[in-house]
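Hi team,

Filling in the usual template for the complex we talked about on Friday. All components are listed, including any nucleic acid strands or ligand strings, so the model treats them as one assembly.

SUBMITTER: L.P.
PURPOSE: interface mapping
COMPONENTS: two
RESIDUES: 1033
SEQUENCES:
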Amino acid sequence: MELISTNKSVEICFPIRGHLCLKKVFNSIIMEIKVKKLEEEFEKDLLTAQALSDIEALRIKYLGRKAEINQLFSMVPSLSKEAKGIWGKNLNILKNKITFALDEKSKGLSAKEKRIDLTYPAARLERGSRHILSVVSEEICSVFEKLGFTIVEGTEIEDEWHNFSALNIPLDHPSRDAFDTFYLDIPEPKEKHRGKFLLRSHTSPSQARVMSLSKPPIAVVSPGRVYRPDAVDASHSFMFHQVEGFAIDKNINFAHLKGVLLNFARLFFSSDVNLRLRPHFFPFTEPSAEVDISCFICKGQKDKCSLCKGKGWLEILGCGMIHPEVLKNCGIDPKKYKGFAFGMGVERPAMLKYGINDIRLFYENDVKFLEQF
Amino acid sequence: MRFSLNFVKELIKVDLPAEELAQLLTMAGIEVEHFEKQGEDYVFDIEITSNRYDWLSIVGIAREISACLGKRLDIKYPKVVKSPPIKDKLIKIENNIDCPFYVARRLQGVTVLASPEYLKEKVNNCRINAINNVVDVTNYCMLKWGNPLHAFDEDKIEGNIYVRKARDGEKFVGIDEKERILNRENLVIADDKKVIALAGLMGAKNTEVTEKTKNILLEAAIFSPLRIRHSRRFAGIDTDSSYRFERQVFSDYLEYASAEAADLISKICGGEFTGFLQVGKKPLSKDKKITLESNELNEYLGAQFPKAKIKSILTNLGFIVKESGKLKFSLLAPKHRFDITREVDVYEEISRIYGYDKIKEQIPAIPHEVVKNEIYEFKKELRQQLSVLGLNEVITYSVEADEDLDKLGCNNLIKLVNPLRAQENSLRPSLSLGLIKAVSYNLNRSRANLRFFEIANVYSRQDNSFCESSHLSIGLCEEEKDLFYLKGVIEEIFKFLNINDFEFKEKSLSFCANALEIFVNKKSAGFLGKLDEKIKNEFGLKKDLYLSEFDIASLCSARKLKCYLPISPYPVVFRDISIALHKNKHFSDVEKIIKEKKEYICDYRIIDTYQGKDLEKDFYAFSLRVFYQSKQRTLTSEEVDQVHNAIRELLGKQEGVRLR
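RESULT (copied from the run log):
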């Protein structure tokens, strides 16, 4: 970079007038050499400056209080009259040029900090998590809340009436085999029809309780823990979670049940899933159905899908129109009112949705598992 | 259950490919779990719901397929011959509730051999092992009609036949060669000297049909479903026969099954039908009249069903259908359908054959009152808040071992009457054990930084009843996180809930050292503390665990709506005081003085603690930084000093407090 032309000034400096004049000429030469050296040094320094901090160091070196250019300015009075004017002006130009050059270079560098290893790992933050079963259960409930349902939680200690008889499940019949139950050593309640105390084997007793206590129209979902004497393995647990839901009004029908469940499946799983209702039997509903959703992984392409095992469908819940006997048992006139009900596990949809392959993971509480959600 | 397609084809023509048939059955309510080609045949593995005993037979399956295909099944019923009577033997039924009806047919001069291939194949493809021609015929007829039969080697029966309850301790060796000790719950078939069958479950080894058998007594009977259910439970066996009896068998088909078996035995095994004996009364199936109104059907299902369709579906299922009005049908339900008693049962029949998929979805408008579930919402918020505080939610079992709960001082537990394992025999009255186990599981896997919480129910006995309530537990097991960190978490919860009236009071707890009871609005709401060293070792924990537990309802009821507090725009200044405290004094004594002197004080905190040699014996020192701020103006240095010096003076007067 050519900062300043010095040839001209040398020419101007050469009229010789005696030894004082000689001294002045000599000073001019020194000035010229020093300016040139300063210029060269600055150019070199400017080239090597990489960071904003380097520019600031140069600013101090070349423009600061102790900068050489200030010494040169102080030399100006020792020059000849003509040279004074020229060098004074030239030094100012040089100072401006240095300032300008530093400003320009710093613009390009403004973003460049001191180089650091950006591949260093991120800091570890201390964060907590809700249990995935809580997340899924709350999510299921919130979908139904959007559809107009209210949440009611029942108790886990129940009696035979609410867990079985009110729901049209005979106490001693093969239809009860699916509901093996833990009994409790609490003395039987005074009301004989309530039978023995037990740990609820499904969330349906809260349905019976709500029906007995309130008048239709009713739309309720009820989440919670349930218990069955199943040996623990990859797909069984003696304690698991369910969400139960039901709606009762004068004109509720089976098509409504289908509509509510389709909306649920699309909000919970994926907006493009379809439903398939297969006729089934539950003592507390008639007609009854098991509900499958179309596999949201293979989208019905079936072949070798690891989720649906090539079936194209995934079973998610059971449902039906509430059996008239159940309505009657709970003090609701089946001639006037109709209702639908559905019940689903929480573990299964959670496993399907998040690819969890072993139910035990939910209850071991390995922090490596918990932290993932 | 498994069935052979070729067997079905004996009764009905089926042209559908197996896959389509599987789909058809599944969508009609017979879920086909699996099907596979077996030679020229297909074997279907189906799940049959507990209400449909009638599907436990080839006749039932064939009827269903016909109905699905829009046809009515025509069954060729065998001729039932009831003579000549057996005169040399008596059959005595002890209790006609356990066994209302018993039929015996005698066949003489049989040759017991392996069955012909076609018979073997049918039986095998229904997954029943082919044994010999006589046994295979009885199984074939059971599969076809749904009524279990049993063939005795008559020459080994001594005297008369009795249907009676087993005597306590009576021994029975079945054809599976296992010995079982019976009791009064078991119903047996016996002769004068011994038990010859466990009724409805299995024949005895002593009268088994073998290659040497010449004469046969063929049993067909109706047993009480409940009796068979109890009997099989006590005997610990589940057989094809008990499965059917328990779900109730159709007495009309009993005669066909028995007659056809006798006929086939004489044809295949070369025996001669020489005697018949029946005891008891064949249970009569009552006519079940149901009136069906098609507009009610349409309303119930939310679809329009064509009248002709209703009629054909029901007719094909075996109903007798009469139009009794413009929109009315009077129906007679098929006798074999015990499960159909009322209109809704018929609605299901129509809709499932018509196809659930043809009913179009609708969204109901339910004009009910929407109520907020306060506790549910509270728990939801609490979960959210605790995870924000860096805690991971755990879910631990509600059912625990009494001996573990006992270690934590929990007693008078509610116990399970029928626990699966001793590890899970009692309901927990506290969530602490769950946390201990979750922490232990993680420590054993070298996991660090364990900050857990759980929200779940606990259960306790109350006089003759019980109490179930919701609790919150918190557990910390992490380096550099101590009781005061836990206290901080708890204070954050109070802050979130806007609870100002809380207090920590020292408490002695059997399973915690340095425990504090937490009072909210002057009422006990929970505790915190460090797990006792001894208990820690008993559970094999390698690190310290800090625990806390709350009653959710107490927290929920104490929560207050938050109200914005104006933020002072004036500067905060602070002054430090170095204090040395005697070990008999508490920080709370210092805190009390500061709290009482409310003027301009907006906050205070300990900035460092010191325990050096230059301190008096039994003293420890800390620096307290007190922050001052006014809501109205900037405080002058003099004003701050004045308040600060007043505090210093008050503190200095206290015994056991040294200002440094």
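MY TAKE: Chain B touches chain A through 85 residues (CB under 8 Å). Chain B is about 30% helix and 30% strand.

Thanks, L.
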